[in-house]
Amino acid sequence: MTTQAFSGSRLTGGQILIRELIARGVDTVFCVPGESYLAALDAIYEAGEAIKLVVCRHEAGAANMAEAWGKLTGKPGICFVTRGPGACHASIGIHTAKHDSTPMILFVGQVPRDQIGRGAFQEVDYPATFGDLAKWATQIDDGTRIPEIVGRAYAVALGGRPGPVVIALPEDMLSEQVQVGAQQVQPRPSRPAPDDASVKRLIELLNSAERPLLVLGGSGWTDEGLADLTRFVEASGLPVTCGFRRQDLFDNRHPNYVGESALGINPKLKARWREADLIVAVGTRLGEIVTDGYTNLDAPSPGPKLVHVYPDASELGRVYQPALAITADVNAFAKAAAGLSLAPKWDDWRQSARADYEAWQQPPASVGPVDMAKIVGWLADTLPDEAIVTNGAGNYAIWLHRFFRYKRRGTQLAPTSGAMGYGLPAAIAAGIRHPDRPVVCFAGDGCFMMASTELATIVRHRVPVIVVVVNNGAYGTIRMHQERRYPGHVVGTELVNPDFAALAQSYGIAGWRVEKTEDFASAFEAARASGEAALIEIVLPTAELSPTMKLKS
Fold it and tell me: In total, how many domains does the chain have?
């Protein structure tokens, strides 16, 4: 990367901004263009091949792509949108980045400085609007402060619990030339390591336990950190459960893996939370979904002894009072734990938990000619270990999370925020970042239609992702809750859909329609062999609400 195009002593705000991003290693930016930040767009043009500009069809798609980029790289995903409606559309990506602890920076065009506070066209007070959604929201009114504020944005996005930053850019500030000094790029934030006393206490708690459970989650992990953690797990014999949509943090084929603590949790795994005498939670906040509505543990005293490891001290003791709180970077903790000498005495506990997981992997009976469990199981056996699988929100994802076996970090892109419309943009980001790896997007019919405009982005940037649309003609999750609380009162959850395969073909993307289990494999293999983007529509009866809930005919 180079900043040669922006080497003068007087530069526009837009040029300074793009110079700062390039200096921090930014090579890809997601956007929907707007007149409010044309000077920044022009600076991207001047940067030439230093920055790849991914132009999207909706700001929600652009923000979701940037959020997925942050997950894939561990660095802030960068998104540009225009003022007012553009920023509001992009807010879903900020919400997901906050809940998923993903580093991200959203740059928003703003009205000129002399119009602020007058209710100008599309004017929004961004610090007020995004103050709760983001880790930090601010506005740059002085172009000379761009390096300072961008530097702080990176520190905030990456520090402690990672998350999103929103920066408003007044239009006239971006086009105004200002005097700038030499460029200085700050290092990444420091990563705290566990202190010796905490490690000693951890050993004591583990050696006194009989039924421990390691709960793994959160963001910021590296391959080295997870390798260290695996050594710790193997030496200690700990059973491992991964938090909601963090299954790729530990190889699901490993004999110590005992399942996902998330929506649709294995009842036997849920029982083990209550039976455990020690919970070691690493990287997870122990939020609502991981704790099954805060029922797996009691609050504030959890029941079993709790060791909670998290990089942000403000999250420790937020709901549950731990016996041992360790403020530490997850990778630093894993490195310290990898060399521990323990005396485990819970082999039977771990082996029975693993047996419960393997039994839970057996497909239940389906009500129609399509068996989603078998399809997902086939994909788990067929796709290479490095394949990236994405999804948004909906009951269709329960089949994916229960029956797919994740093998490597960075192969699961899914929103812990529970946001619909995420899977397709995330797959596009993954396909651009890793063009040499298979990328498969799972989406329900409702979920897919919230992002279907990004098929045009797939075509424009020639991203060879395979999209699997599970079409049951309903908002399946809401219908499930509706049937539980108001049985037989079906209202607002039925959908009218296009022919999804034909929709894909209208974009020039190959499309298949699958109505029987045995037809999926051939369609998928043909899609992979093409080397191009493809869409496979799976037709599922509405009665197939989830692996465990079926409607009576």
Answer: 3
